[in-house]
């Protein structure tokens, strides 16, 4: 590319970090439906394929596994070939996986189309967009990654009702084709203007030396971060928070039914669906909120506040879990204290190890969410089965939360300060 061409490229309308954030938000919203509206397809698919629910749910497990455990590879591909191409490929795989799922005739084909293809495609976009935002916003990493991550949570709010209506009126197969094409095109179009900032780029008026969050003076490769004790402290902390959160998130329904509040009316709505609606909102809101807070008071202190809030909310929820109105409010507060891990951990990682390899580095850290998805729900169900009570589950969740909160200010903060001073 000639100098003149490059100059024209960098002055184009999309060569603006706020435009990049909007494009990333759109791409994230386009991939949220395979995870968040999966439950709408389970009934029709189960009837079509003649499988058990347990067999069918392996599709969802594969989606999450491919999205999280393959994230280092997905992020490497984004860093290697750029976001424009790879985000488009991810959207094509995510939307195409839905279209192909409309024509399957057995459970193994569904595992491949919906689980593997959609899972890998959504993973590319998730880690790719988060990595891109961390490079464009060195001064507002918490806020930017929080907004991008919130897009993944909020996206299904706009698709849940129309998809549910189309399934009832036209069938699940037609719905998968239509929405697979629509969401795939949206993601592909958004990707066409995504760009990586030039090496060494910083926003006007920004100086790393005066940043409110401590930041590395150079970028570290994935090979280097995997040899750093700080990375493994972050990995353990994120795994603990992911596990504790998913122990609750995956069992809100069983909690409500066990304590007989699921169908009790609160403000004219059944407590369980009202709780799930409020929790989806607070789970999205917390990501940019605590990300913004961390940009101002520091990552570790924000972790301590947010994780302590999660611990307190869990204990209060357990004390009043049989009160329908409090059940709704407190489950929302629990989600508010948990969802910020998806903005605090990537921004902390990039502050510590630099922006150049942000996507690939976060790909390795994001495996912690995969660890939580394996341990969280199943572990909680097993403990309930063995003890006959949810008491031990709530105690373990609260313990994991407060231990992680204390690790942030007693271990992580000192390690990061020494690392950055040495660099």
What labels would you give this structure?
single chain; 423 residues; mainly alpha; two-stranded antiparallel ribbon; 20 helices; 2 strands; 79% helix; disordered N terminus
Summarize the structure.
By secondary structure, the chain is an all-alpha fold.
Structural features, described:
With about 425 residues, the protein is mainly α. The protein has 20 helices and two strands. It has helices at about 5-10, 15-30, 35, 40-50, 55-70, 70-80, 85-100, 105-135, 140-170, 170-190, 220-225, 230-250, 250-260, 270-295, 300-320, 325-340, 340-355, 360-365, 365-385, 390-420; strands at about 265, 270. Strands 1-2 form a two-stranded antiparallel ribbon. β1 (about 265) and β2 form a beta hairpin. The chain is globular, with a radius of gyration of 21 Å. The chain starts with a helix and ends with a helix.
Largest β sheet strand count, sense and barrel closure: 2 strands, antiparallel
- The rounded distance between the terminal residues' Cα atoms is 34 Å
Shape: globular
Classify the helix fraction into a percent range.
over 70%
Compressed to H and E, one letter per element, the order equals HHHHHHHHHHHHHEEHHHHHHH
Q: Which value, in Å, is the CA radius of gyration?
A: 21 Å
Mean pLDDT equals 90
Show unreliable segments: 1-6
Query: What's the count of strands?
Result: 2
Lateral arrangement of strands in the main beta sheet: 1-2
User: How many helices?
Assistant: 20
How much beta, percentage-wise? under 5%
Helix and strand content put the structural class at mainly alpha
């Amino acid at each position: 590319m000639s100098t003149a061409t490059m100059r024209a490229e960098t002055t184009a309308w999309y060569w603006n970090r706020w435009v990049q954030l909007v494009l990333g938000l759109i791409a994230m919203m386009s991939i949220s439906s395979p995870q968040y509206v999966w439950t709408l397809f389970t009934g029709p698919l189960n009837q079509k394929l003649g499988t058990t629910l347990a067999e069918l749910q392996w599709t969802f497990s594969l989606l999450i596994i491919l999205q999280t455990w393959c994230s280092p590879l997905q992020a490497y591909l984004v860093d290697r070939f750029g976001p424009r191409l790879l985000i488009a490929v991810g959207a094509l795989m995510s939307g195409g996986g839905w279209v192909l799922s409309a024509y399957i005739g057995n459970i193994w084909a569904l595992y491949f189309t919906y689980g593997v293809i959609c899972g890998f495609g959504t993973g590319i976009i998730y880690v790719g967009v988060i990595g891109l935002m961390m490079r464009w916003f060195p001064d507002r990493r918490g806020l930017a990654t929080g907004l991008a991550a919130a897009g993944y949570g909020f996206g299904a709010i706009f698709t849940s009702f129309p998809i549910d209506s189309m399934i009832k009126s036209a069938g699940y197969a037609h719905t998968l084709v239509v929405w697979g094409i629509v969401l795939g095109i949206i993601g592909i179009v958004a990707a066409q203007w995504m760009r990586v900032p030039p090496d060494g780029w910083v926003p006007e008026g920004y100086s790393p030396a005066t940043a409110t969050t401590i930041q590395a003076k150079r970028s570290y490769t994935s090979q280097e971060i995997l040899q750093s004790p700080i990375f493994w402290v972050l990995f353990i902390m994120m795994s603990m928070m992911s596990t504790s959160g998913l122990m609750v998130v995956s069992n809100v329904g069983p909690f409500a039914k066990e304590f007989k509040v699921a169908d009790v009316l609160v403000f004219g709505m059944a407590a369980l669906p009202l709780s799930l609606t409020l929790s989806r909102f607070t789970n999205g809101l917390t990501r940019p909120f605590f990300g913004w807070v961390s940009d101002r008071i520091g990552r570790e202190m924000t972790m301590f506040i947010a994780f302590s809030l999660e611990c307190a909310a869990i204990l209060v929820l357990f004390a009043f879990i049989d009160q329908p109105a409090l059940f709704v409010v407190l489950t929302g507060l629990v989600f508010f204290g948990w969802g910020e891990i998806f903005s605090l951990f990537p921004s902390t990682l990039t502050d510590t190890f630099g922006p150049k390899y942000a996507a690939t580095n976060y790909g390795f850290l994001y495996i912690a969410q995969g660890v939580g998805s394996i341990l969280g729900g199943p572990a909680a169900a097993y403990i309930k089965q063995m003890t006959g009570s949810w008491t031990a589950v709530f105690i373990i969740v609260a313990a994991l939360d407060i231990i992680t909160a204390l690790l942030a200010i007693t271990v992580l903060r000192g390690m990061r300060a020494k690392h950055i001073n040495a660099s």
